[in-house]
Amino acid sequence: MIPHALVDDAPIAPHARWHPVPAAGLELLRGTADGHPHTLVADQGTCSWTPDVRDGQRLALGVLRAAAPAYLIHPEHGGTGVAPGTYLIRRQRERSHAAEQDRLVAD
Predict the structure, then answer these.
(1) Which domain range does residue 7 map to?
(2) How far apart are CA 56 and CA 5, in angstroms?
């Protein structure tokens, strides 16, 4: 998660459709290795989300606009607090030294 203002290669699409983050949460990603969900949760009416972002690195899941604290929840890692603001949420990648290439993190 990166403050969107610090990212210059992932503009929000001009036609972006913003969706409220429901109180029950919004699953952003399910881990490929363990099948655990990465879920965004927030109080009703405080956050909105769009997957309509153009990411030059092709890692973006979307952009979050939070007017109040939100949380990214993972069953094994617990919750990560998110302060109010606008954030780009991307998948993680790691460097495979054996293969000398980047690969997506299989959480």
Answers:
(1) 2-13+20-90
(2) 15
Among 54, 1, 49, 58, CA closest to 26: 49
Can you count the helices (H) and strands (E) in the chain? 0, 11
The per-residue pLDDT for range 37-95, each reduced to its tens digit, is 889 999 999 999 999 998 888 889 999 999 999 998 887 777 889 999 999 998 876 55
Q: Are the C-beta atoms of 88 and 13 separated by less than 8 Å?
A: no
pTM, two decimals, is: 0.78
Q: Domain tally for the chain?
A: 1
Please give the pLDDT value at position 107: 45
Residue count of the chain: 107
